[in-house]
Amino acid sequence: MASGATEASAGPLQGGSASPLGGGDAHALASRGARSYIGRFAPSPTGPLHPGSLVAALASWLDARAHHGRWLARIEDVDTPRCVPGADQTILAQLAACALVPDEPPVWQSARNGLYAQALHTLAASGLAYPCGCSRRDIEEAQATRGIQRQRHAALPYPGTCRSGLHGKTARAWRMRTDTSTPEVAAALARKGRSAINSDGAAPLLHWQDRALGPQAQDVEREVGDFVLQRADGLFAYQLAVVVDDADQGVTDVVRGADLLDNTPRQILLQQALGLPTPRYLHTPLVLAADGEKLSKQNGAQAFDAAHPAAALAAAAQVLGLPPAPATDTPAALLARWVPAWSMHTAVTGRLLQSGG
Prior knowledge:
This protein is α/β, with parallel strands linked by helices. 34% of the residues lie in helices and 12% in strands.
């Protein structure tokens, strides 16, 4: 909900029509999981692609081709204040220069707000989402009383202050409940076919298998807390948008950078809550800056040189542990060489990615 909304305000929680992501249409989306491989590359248009972004694009394209599948491009511009005008077209041109051409026309998240609103309606109607009136300072103060301080590069877990109501506050955002051991949340998840309580009554760890990194697990409530679905400025959060879009596009496999690994359990929780299929996940090595931090637009990463796409692709391939190729090869020829190598090495428990430089 937009900033200033109240607990009973208008928006995605009003209206009598069923959400397309609830009921019968959710089953239609879930049925897409049985289709053949569909992968995607989903950059944010906050600037041109840098070398780290190209690693993720190349890995996702190769994985789709190795599985004889389709590869899609999605422009994740849901966070409109951070988007740079024209960056979306620059990104698509950079991909084309590298012969990384999607099999369908790209989609833009900014044109899909209706789908996100309907998903939020479904979650709220199920008791799995609630309005929150807490500011960042409120969260910091609540956690400080528990002796919990914010860690570097990490947000404080939300302590669930508004789960039981706004208590006179004005709603600022909407959050997803992660306290899966409570009876009401357990019942809501059970209706979706999910077991929410372990034999000892504790909230379970959420387990998943990464194709490159192996078994993973996270206690979402303890490590993240109830996470935002719609922000105080009215914009839908990345976690909700990406889950809705992956299901709507029939994505079966998500191949992306390892910096997004800890987003995966939140997305799986949302998929379970909405009755949507969970894709297979594979997280690729990161390109690091000179200071050892992840190379990103925020720390001044420069765009890769699209005037020399073969060289840019070769550098990305090296990160993924792919074999070197002749410098005279075109981008298309390079990609053709690497598809069999990707197929061979990723079949062996992600050895390719774990050995990447």
